Amino acid sequence: MPPFAVAADFKHANQIKVGVMLVNLGTPDDTSVAAVRRYLNEFLSDPRVVEFPRLPWWLVMQLFILRFRPRKVAHAYTSVWQEEGSPLLVYSKAQATALQEELDVYFPQRFIVALAMRYGKPAIHDVMDGFRQQHCRHLLIIPMFPQYSATTTASVFDEVTRILKSWRLLPQLHMLMNYHDRPSYIDALAMSIEAGWQKNGRGQQLLMSFHGLPQRYHRAGDPYYCECMKTARLLADRLGLKDAAWQAVFQSRFGREPWLQPYLNETISMLPASGVHSVDVVCPGFAADCLETLEEVAEHNRDLFMNAGGEKFQYIPALNAQSGHIKMLVDIVENETRNWMAELERYNDPEQMDKRQRRAVEPGAEE
C-alpha cells in the first residue's frame, strides 16, 4: 500500500474539477441511545469544542455525561426526526443537491458539490476521498456556520488539514472563514422573515437566537459574539426594525459556567410580563434546521413563552434549501473560485491534455 493516497485511476490526461464541500456540524445515525452516545462522544471529545484539560474532561464525559445525557438527547431527537433521517441531514442534503443543480446551469462540468459532517456521517474523510478519486485538484470548503468560531469553523479546518497530511498530490485549497455580513446572506434572511410575516402575521418583537458559547471563549479572542451581533444589526436594519422591536439572544447553554448572554430561555420567559404577548423567533446562525431549532426553540421555548402568559409564538424556519439561500451559496462559490477558472480552462483544454500525456509517457510514465 502506498504511503500517501492517490486517485486509483490517475492519468496525466485526466480532466480536473473543483470540489465544493458544504460542512455542517453533524448528527447521530438514528434516535437510539447508543447512536446518540457515539455521536456525543465524538463531538465532545474535540478539544476545539470543550477547552478543558483532556484527562479530567475525559473522566467527566465517561463517568457522567455519556452515562446520562444520551438518553435525554435521544428522546429529544424522536420529536423532530423525519422519515428520511435527522432534519439537519435531510435539509443539508437538499442544499447540496440544489447547489449542484444551480452550478451545473451556470458552470457545466466544472464543480462537484458534496455534503460532509464534522462529526458523524457523511464524514469529511470519506467526502474528500471522493473528491480525490474524481480528480478535484481544487477544493473549496464552506463551513455552514455564518459566524466564525474556533468551536466550529476552526475544527473543520483541523480535520481537513489532518486528512491532507496523507495525500500525495495536494489540492489548491480555500476555506471560507465566515459569511456573517455578506449582503446576499442578510437578504436571504430578511426575505425568509418577511415571508413568515406575510403568511402568519408579525409579532410584537423579533428574537434573533444564536447558539451560545462560554463567555471565556469570547474573552480569549473568539470573534463569534461580535459577528453574531453584526449579523443581528445588519438584519434589523435591512428589515427596518426599531431598537425595541428586536433582540439578539443566545441558546443551548451546556454546563454551569457563564455563557454568552442574554439567554433565550430567560428572555422569552420574561417577555409576557413586560407586555410582549406575541413573538417571532429566527435562528440566523443555523444554516439548516436541526435539533436546536426545531426542538429547543420551536417546542421547548415556545412552551416557556406560552406558559408565562404569551399568546402567539412563531418560529421562522432556517434558510434550509430556500432559493435565496442557494443563490447566496452560488455567489460564494463563484466569488471564491474566480481565480481558479483560467487555470482550469487551460488545464482541461483537449490539446493541452494530449500534450501533457505525451510528455509524461516519453520519460517512462505509464500514462
Fold topology:
Blueprint: E1 17-27, H1 33-44, H2 54-78, H3 87-106, E2 111-120, H4 124-133, E3 136-143, H5 153-164, E4 172-175, H6 183-200, E5 205-211, H7 215-219, H8 224-239, E6 246-251, H9 264-270, E7 278-282, H10 291-307, E8 312-316, H11 323-337, H12 341-347, H13 350-361
Parallel strand pairs: 1-2, 1-3, 3-4, 5-6, 5-7, 7-8
What report would you give on this structure?
By secondary structure, the protein is α/β, with parallel strands linked by helices. It folds into two domains: 17-178 and 323-350, Rossmann fold (3-Layer(aba) Sandwich); 183-316, Rossmann fold, CATH 3.40.50. 48% of the residues lie in helices and 15% in strands. The chain is built from 13 helices and eight strands. It has helices spanning 33-44, 54-78, 87-106, 124-133, 153-164, 183-200, 215-219, 224-239, 264-270, 291-307, 323-337, 341-347, 350-361, and strands at 17-27, 111-120, 136-143, 172-175, 205-211, 246-251, 278-282, 312-316. The strands form two sheets. A four-stranded parallel beta sheet has the order 2-1-3-4, sandwiched between helices. Helix 10 links the parallel strand 7 (278-282) and strand 8 (312-316). The chain is globular and about 80 Å long. The mean pLDDT is 94.
Q: Low-confidence parts, pLDDT < 50 over ≥5 residues?
A: none
**Widest sheet, order of strands:** 2-1-3-4
CATH class of the largest domain equals Alpha Beta
Give the H and E element order: EHHHEHEHEHEHHEHEHEHHH
Helix content: 40-55%
CATH topology of the largest domain: Rossmann fold
Residue fraction in strands: 15-25%
Overall mean pLDDT: 94
What is the straight-line distance between the termini? 20 Å
**Number of continuous helical runs:** 13
Structural class: alpha/beta
Biggest sheet record: 4 strands, parallel
